[in-house]
Amino acid sequence: MGTLNARDKLRAALLSLLIAVAALAIWHVTTVKPAPTAATGVSAEYAALMGKGAEKTDGLPPPAKVAEAFVHHLGRPFYDNGPNDKGIGVQLAYSLARVGLGFVLAVVVALPLGFAIGMSPLLYRALDPFIRVLKPISPLAWMPLALYTIKDSDISGVFVIFICSIWPMLINTAHGVASVRKEWLNVARTLELKPWRKAFEVVLPAAAPTILTGMRISMGIAWLVIVAAEMLVGGTGIGYFVWNEWNNLALPNVIFAIVVIGVVGMALDALFGRLQRAATYRE
Amino acid sequence: MSTSFLAVEALSKSYVPGAPPVFENLHLSIHQGEFVCIIGHSGCGKTTVLNVLAGLEEPSSGHVLMGGRQINGPSLDRGVVFQGHALMPWLSVLRNVVFAVRSRWPEWSRAQAEAHARKYLEMVGLGHVLQKKPAELSGGMKQRVGIARAFAIEPKMLLLDEPFGALDALTRGMIQDELLRIVRSTSQTVFMITHDVDEAILLADKVLLMSNGPRARIAEVVEVTMPRERTRLTLHHDPQYYRIRNHLVDFLVHRSKDYGDGGPAAAGHDPRHPPVVRPGLEESATVTPLPLERMRPPLAAVPHESPPRLRAQGE
Description:
Chain A is mainly α and 283 residues long. Helices cover 75% and strands 0% of the residues of chain A.
């Protein structure tokens, strides 16, 4: 990692391209079918009954079909033709809004609470069993409870994101705050720093790299969970889009959505990676 | 002792209840403008004494008076230079000092605080690295930032916890000279821990010798009876230097362990009034001069390379 020179980087990029081309080629070769002939034994009437023909249900779609889906969706990302027909941009916006809202709520709770836990060994001890039990619960397990008590599928989705992204942030904040170097705290004490100045100008920057690592993990989990949550609650979002296209048996659209989910997840991770680097200090 | 600027009375500290205290019945006083070094082996509680003076640790018993008032916690009146420099690595050199300046004078404007910080950084010869982060500096430069930060708040007293321990010999010598110059020009009162006998003689007006722990105490107060205007390069031309040096080394090597329970020096030693010794001028009864062949002139550039080098790891 890290110390590749420009020539090696170019080589790596070429290799990546080669792998992509090879994968597409294999995909193409294994999925492309000979043009359907009339002598398949299936009557034209039956084929018409089944809609656009039998090819749709037969195995993985070839790359060309998926490429068509890409062109189709990316060409018109923001249309809205009612509940089951929205552009991919609109669906993504719904998902990102839920993730963003749940994540921000988790930050609002996890940061102060993590600070308190990190500062107070007593609180650390007292809350530790609860955190240990709550952390490994799959966020989706909360869904029925959320739907029942909140009675709103949209807010329930946000709640699920909140509950899954709070733990890494809480634990990392507490850990980061608890392990601020004693000598920096001693400097703060000898300078008679007011508590808020100590918190914001010593403890926070000292713990920032650890806190941001927690946020990055949380965001990764939130993006994983939103797809499943939206499949469950339905209505809008990229997860619902995937489920809806599955119900339509439009596999090119499903593959398109999978790629989009990956790319957006990568972008979110890169964003937090950048924040993390900005907060990291060299000792 | 009502004239003293800082007075320590009957101080003791034990970390484990029931176990013998690290030090006990510690009495000392420091006058305004005085430079006091404390020397002793690892584990005698030097750093604890300094932390108590700083207000960072509570003594188990006894108290510390500064200007007649009891010390109850850390204060901007006492600037501390920490052993490991303790700079904030996320702040630039200038910001580190400004951080301290803003604590002292919160009402100052940003420009005012920066100008003040810059002045002290220039004083320690770091005017050219203001925007650098501590990680980009050498160990000696970092420690100079720590010194500038402590001076910049213009404390009534400066506490230095073995500030040059981690530095190489040349850097150490340069910073010692700098510190001496600044302390003299500002008439700063200083309390400093060191493991280095030569450093103590160069800098101090008096050297407190601490016996080994547990139950460490101040065994002697050695007055450095040399002109105050000393320099590292001419120090060893003064015959008085060797008398003091031998006295200190002799204490560390031979006598520091004699003050424990039933030790040969414990009887008749009054921890309230430890003997004040002026080696070479009035020989104290407790002093055993070293045989001549053990006297060796120190190397001018690397004074602390002289034997025996008594440095600790764990403090």
